[in-house]
Design brief:
The chain is an alpha/beta fold. The chain is built from 7 helices and 8 strands; from the N terminus they run E-H-E-E-H-E-H-E-E-E-H-E-H-H-H. Helix 2 runs antiparallel to helix 5 and helix 5 crosses helix 6. The N and C termini lie far apart (40 Å).
Length: 232
């Protein structure tokens, strides 16, 4: 059976192109050989293949979904790994496509909002309202999770479906009075496409990706050592 292929991709205009350069350099330093594709207004991002980003609306980071469907999905890889440009590789993350080869997408599920009693709001709206919206839109998993859209993996042939589900949930929530950004929309797509959410939690996938929301590495570069994730 042919081994699935994957690439990393991002959108980096203005000063974000410098961050993208540092991200790619950190990946190459730990032995990552997969291609990076960067949509940018810079002439080059060393170590990456660059594409003209053109003009786009940055509000709500919804451009990630647009670029996924209209640009990244045209690349000749089986899986597409999106990264925000503020990533730093501390070690080789392994075969990401192989890890998720039996599912259409992955985004790390960080906190079960049905259990986080002290976590009252997510993206300006009550968490219980979000959970209720997910239920009304067809989510049946026992837990309903918050996600971080700084990294997500999509099988190329599922990109259109991910976009469709995200757009569907955006419209569903707008009719109920909320205008959501990228993360709640990607959370909805993830819950609809991957019924076994347990393998996508932070606990199950923290060995290859995590976010430093607690600011442990503020003003310093991350190191390859464990740290505690204490909350959103």
């Amino acid at each position: 059976m042919k081994k699935p292929t994957f690439c990393y991709w991002s959108v980096a205009t203005g000063e974000y192109a410098r961050l993208a350069s540092a991200m790619v350099a950190s990946a190459r330093a730990v032995g990552v050989q997969e291609d990076f594709h960067i949509w940018t207004d810079a002439e080059e991002v060393p170590g990456a293949r660059v594409h003209a980003a053109g003009e786009f609306d940055p509000w709500g980071w919804l451009f990630k979904l647009v670029f996924l469907r209209e640009q990244a999905a045209k690349l000749p890889y089986d899986y597409l790994v999106f990264l925000d440009t503020d990533h730093w590789f501390v070690r080789h993350p392994g075969d990401i496509a192989g890890r998720f080869s039996d599912v259409p997408m992955h985004i790390t599920l960080e906190a079960d909002l049905t259990r986080e009693e002290g976590f009252l709001y997510w993206w300006e709206y009550p968490t219980l309202w979000f959970v209720d919206s997910m239920r009304k839109a067809g989510v049946t998993t026992p837990g309903v999770y918050a996600v971080n859209a700084g990294m997500f993996v999509v099988r190329r042939d599922a990109a259109e479906e991910v976009y469709r589900l995200a757009d569907q949930f955006w419209g569903h929530c707008k009719r109920r009075g909320a205008i959501y950004v990228d993360e709640p929309l990607l959370s909805y797509a993830m819950h609809r496409l991957c019924s076994d959410v347990s393998r996508h939690t932070l606990e199950a996938t923290g060995d290859f990706w995590a976010t430093d929301l607690d600011g442990l590495y503020q003003n310093t570069l991350p190191e390859d050592r464990p740290f505690d994730f204490r909350g959103l």
